[in-house]
Amino acid sequence: MSRLTHVTSGPYAPPAPARELTVVSADGARLHVEVHGPEDAPPVVLAHGWTCSTAFWAAQIRELAVDHRVVAYDQRGHGRSPASPACSTRALADDLEAVLAQTLERGERAVIVGHSMGGMTVMAAAARPRFREHAAAVLLCSTGSSRLVAESRVLPLRAGGLRTWLTARVLASRAPLGPVTPVARRILKYVTMGPGSAPHMVEACARIVHACPRTVRHAWALVLAQLDLDHGVRELRAPTAIVTGTADRLTPPVHARALVAALPHPVGLTELPGMGHMTPVEAPELVNGKIRELVTEYVTGAPEEAGADGPERIKEGS
C-alpha cells in the first residue's frame, strides 16, 4: 500500500517487533503476525478491530513489551494481511486459532485482548478447543455481539428503522476515504472518538483507518451488519473484563452491559466517561493496566475457581 499507514513518531508510532511471521489460516489465508518483548515473558495476544491494523496497538505494545510477550496480528485484508474472499465470523475464529497455534506452546495460557471486531473475533472463537486451551483471561474493549447497526449512534436520528437503514449504508459505503485532511480528522473523531480526544490520538487513528482498502472496509461492514454472536458470549468461559466509552457511537455502552449480563465469568465492567470507540488509543494507561491485572491474576498468579467473581462495575476517568 502506497499510503503511510501509521504515524512515525510519538507514543502511537508502532515499535519494531522482535520477530515477524506469516501464519496460514484454515482456508489458506495468510496473516501478518508480530511478536514483541521477551520470549520467556507471560503472553498477551491482541486482536484489532474493523479498518485497523497492528499499528492500532502501538501504545499497548510499547508499554507491555517491556515485560510481556505481546503477539499482535493483522486481521485478513487489514494491514499487511492480504485480502481474502472469505469474510465471516467463522474466518475470524479460524484466524485467531491459527495465530494462537503458531505463537504459543501447547497448553500455554495467555490474556487475549480484542477491540471492536477483535472482540467479536474472540466471541466467534469462544467454543473452539484451541482458544479454550490458551485463553487464561480476556479483555473486551468497545465491542458488542449483535444489533450493531440498530444500536449505533453514528447518525443523530431517533432510533428506529430509518436510522438503522441509513447507518448500514453509511458504514458499508464503498466511497474512498481519501487523504488524511483536517475535515477527515473531524469526521473520524466524531464517528470513532470522544470529544476530548487529543489531536495526536486522532491523527494516529485517522492514518490507520484511512489506510484500510475500501473493498475490505465494505466487505467486513456487511459481516458486522448481520452479526449475531450472542451464543459466543455464552460460550466465553474465561474470566472476562470489559472496557467501554460512554461516548462510543459505534458500540454504545448498551452492548457492554449486555455482555456482562450474558457472560459466564465477568470480572468487571469499566465505563470511561467521555471516551469514544477507540478506547485503547484514548485511554492507553487504563487499558494497559487492565491487561496487567489480568496477567497477574490469571497467568502468573493462581486463578480462582471459574464463576467465583461476580460482575463489578467501575466508572473511571481518563
Descriptive overview:
With 318 residues, this protein is of the alpha/beta class. Helix content is 38%, strand content 16%. It has helices at 58-64, 89-103, 117-125, 129-134, 148-151, 161-171, 182-192, 199-210, 214-225, 230-235, 253-262, 279-282, 284-298, and strands at 19-24, 30-36, 43-47, 69-73, 110-115, 135-141, 240-245, 266-272, 313-315. The chain has a 9-stranded mixed sheet, sandwiched between helices. Helix 1 crosses helix 13 (284-298), helix 2 packs across helix 3 and helix 7 packs across helix 8. The two termini are 34 Å apart. The model is unreliable at 303-318 (pLDDT under 50).
Strand content: 15-25%
Oligomer: single chain
C-alpha termini separation: 34 Å
Described by the principal axes of the CA atoms, the overall outline is globular
How are the elements arranged and paired?
Blueprint: E1 19-24, E2 30-36, E3 43-47, H1 58-64, E4 69-73, H2 89-103, E5 110-115, H3 117-125, H4 129-134, E6 135-141, H5 148-151, H6 161-171, H7 182-192, H8 199-210, H9 214-225, H10 230-235, E7 240-245, H11 253-262, E8 266-272, H12 279-282, H13 284-298, E9 313-315
Parallel strand pairs: 3-4, 3-5, 5-6, 6-7, 7-8, 8-9
Antiparallel strand pairs: 1-2, 2-4
